[in-house]
Give the backbone structure.
Amino acid sequence: MATIYDVARMSGVSPKTVSRVINGDGAVKNTTKESVERAIAELGYVPSTAARSMRSNKSGLVGLITGAISLPPGHTDSSGLPELFIVQGIQKAMEESSKTLLIADTGGQMERVPQLIRTFEEHRVEGIIYVADHHRKVSLPPVLQTTKLVLANCYDDIGTPAVLPNDYQGQFNLVKNLICKGHRRIAYLSLSQRLDATKQRVSGYADALVSEGIDYDPSLLITADIDSPDNDAEVQLLWDAIDRVLALPEPPTVICFGNDRMAMRAYDILRSRGISLPEDLSVVGYDNHKLITRTLRPTLMSAELPYAAIGIRATELLLGMINGPADASTDPILVSGPVSPGDSVKELPTPITKLLSIGRTTK
């Protein structure tokens, strides 16, 4: 196996000059650089990353812990899309850095996380990104002071730097969009109230109504999902929730569903009742799962969960912590996504009374 001394002899320079060419940390003439690179190619010399990292105290490695790789094909749950899209965002952002990404999968077993963290630290990673399967609180073991840690799609009680979806803003924007299309009776059939995302989305839903002078009606908000993988129970609960809001004395003109998968099921339920979409009732989802939103007829309007952006922002945050002089803020970074348009919402005429009131005063 060729060494740096073999390269130096062949190119007629000192080992220190070869090192400068390899690391790019010193001025070297172009002719010398070309000579060294030619010798490296001819000898098949591979620089020792381990030796370089020992000298610089930088390994150039970043660890990623996720459960996305071991997910079964087509897996979705109440959280929406799998965290695979966050992982893809991290990979894209890492491609532009000089770091090497090491990925470890939990296999769906949280008890494996401490060992994975220790293994990464044994390999002297400069930082670790932990990706959760949905927006939630986690409790991870402490890392070494020299190891930077960023949480993606999750947070903890000790202020570890984190990147989260802005679920409040997503639902707020979605409801405001519906109001702009003339809807004022807006129902919300939510995911389990135990989810952090649901709590924030419910707040966004209520605040969007109040911001437009629409009274919040609690009868229009129904939990239509359980935090358990029971398909039969989910369908029954969804059917009952739809039945309850449509039986109201003043039924809604549009229903917001907790995610696109729930909306897809609702299409069949509503059509079985003879309801035409969106002529008789408008429908919106959440996630912008394009495999669902673009293939349904009519296409589904949905608030986008910005998974790829979460991965990119988490990577930028970690690299900044590694390269910067100080740690990041303990306040989570919130990432918002747009409302994806669809044909599932009918535009209603603006009430005439509202039009006549513009620019007038009452005596």
In short: The radius of gyration is 27 Å. The mean pLDDT is 87.
